[in-house]
Automatic annotation (TrEMBL):
The active site is at residue 186. It comes from Undibacterium baiyunense. The keyword Transferase applies. One of its GO terms (molecular function) is pyridoxal phosphate binding. It comes from the Bacteria. The keyword Transmembrane does not apply. This is DegT/DnrJ/EryC1/StrS aminotransferase family protein. PANTHER family: DTDP-4-AMINO-4,6-DIDEOXYGALACTOSE TRANSAMINASE, TRANSAMINASE. The modification N6-(pyridoxal phosphate)lysine is found at residue 186. Keywords: Aminotransferase, Pyridoxal phosphate, Transferase. Coiled coil: none annotated. One of its GO terms (biological process) is polysaccharide biosynthetic process. Belongs to the DegT/DnrJ/EryC1 family.
């Protein structure tokens, strides 16, 4: 690492002074946990998603678990998902007692290959959890046509897709259950947190119960518990961060898009043919550019490549190692070779730095480093 170059991580949140003050105010208010800020964030998110009911939670994992519970999915049911995601996407299926069924991914989009889903549907299939990888949406027309044909519930893992669109409509503004994460690395964050977009007020009420021990209240001292809920509520501290972030979502995503465009410009037309590496789908219509991935050629050993980049002051990520090859999943019968595309990509993919506070010269530096390390 040269003396002048500062370390460039693969992502970093942008937090303004106004948001820091808002968090301070919550601390001084005496109301720290779920309260007025949570209500305000939920109202703003609902407006953002075209008026659909939205509830916030303390992660973008419990959102999916709760969606499955609301849909009544449990023991004996199968849920189809992608092996190429953060492990949360499949863990929630096991958590509710159902069986995860994986379908391989498309080599270009890295999303679940919807053309292969039908072959995985059985009489026990109840739902599908697609992931909009890096904010690049799945083909929503094909997805919902499949779901309708086979009477499947859909829980969109839109953890990475806030601000992404399909035919001009926001992801989350249509569809079935749509789950977003506000974990610190996402396009907007609340330190930890998430939200679930639901279909109607009945589902939203049930989501509130699953969120907090199954409790429903009435009057000053009325309380009952009629479902087994957990402890998944968002704090007002987090909601205050979220309100500050949501205000800037459009600006953040515009900057991500600009930087992604600059990556393509800098890599140039012959980058793939001259190196054997693969660039992401150049989608500047629908994607929110949550991450910028390249797939390294087979001749390159990923850990060595990451170390070389680190020596140049550049931190990379890898998203993701295929879920089915983790021990927990191998113990359930999954093995190497079952989903070859996810396995190849999971072994060779790296995430390049991309976050709103970067500038184009940072991109230039990353591209020069990638080219030299290849
Ligand atoms: C971040 C992420 C999650 C989990 O969200 P948390 O808020 O960390 O629980 C799930 N799926 C995908 C695709 C993610 O990127």
């Amino acid at each position: 690492m040269s003396a002048t170059a500062t370390f460039l991580p693969f992502t970093k949140p942008s937090i303004d002074e106004e948001t820091i003050s808002a968090v301070n105010e919550v601390l001084r208010s005496g109301w720290l946990t779920s309260g007025p800020k949570v209500k305000e964030l939920e109202a703003q998110l609902s407006a953002y998603f075209g008026g659909r009911p939205v509830r916030t939670f303390n992660s973008g994992t419990c959102t999916m678990e709760i969606a499955l519970r609301i849909a009544g999915i449990g023991a004996g049911d199968e849920v189809i998902t992608t092996p190429n995601s953060w492990v949360a996407t499949a863990n929630v299926i096991i958590e509710v007692g159902a069986t995860p069924v994986f379908v391989d991914i498309d080599p270009k989009t890295h999303n679940i290959d919807l053309n292969k889903v039908e072959a995985a549907i059985t009489a026990r299939t109840k739902a599908i959890i697609p992931v909009h990888m890096c904010g690049l949406p799945c083909d929503m027309d094909q997805l919902y046509a499949l779901a309708q044909k086979h009477r499947l519930r859909v829980v969109e893992d839109a953890a990475q897709a806030i601000g992404s669109t399909w035919n001009g409509q926001r992801i989350g503004a249509f569809g079935d259950f749509v789950s977003f994460s506000f974990q610190v690395n996402k396009n907007i964050m609340t330190a930890e947190g998430g939200c679930l977009v639901l279909n109607n007020e009945a589902e939203a009420k049930l989501a509130e119960k699953y969120r907090l021990q199954g409790v429903s209240r009435s009057g000053l001292d009325g309380i009952d518990v009629d479902v087994l809920g957990g402890k998944y509520n968002m704090t007002d501290l987090s909601a205050a961060i979220g309100l500050g972030q949501l205000k800037r979502l459009h600006e953040f995503n515009a900057q991500r898009k600009k930087l992604a465009l600059h990556y393509f410009d800098q890599f140039g037309k012959d980058f793939e043919s001259s190196t054997g590496a693969e660039l992401p789908v150049a989608d500047f219509t629908n994607s929110n550019w949550h991450m910028f991935h390249i797939v390294l050629p087979e001749r390159i050993h990923r850990a060595e490549f990451m170390q070389k980049m680190l020596d140049l002051g550049i931190g990379l990520g890898y998203h993701y190692r295929p879920i089915h090859l983790f021990t927990l999943y191998r113990e359930r019968g999954f093995t190497d070779g079952m989903f070859p595309i996810a396995e190849r990509i999971g072994k060779q993919i790296v995430t390049l730095p991309l976050f709103p506070n970067m500038n184009e010269s940072d991109v230039d530096r990353v591209v020069a480093a990638v080219k030299s390390c290849l």
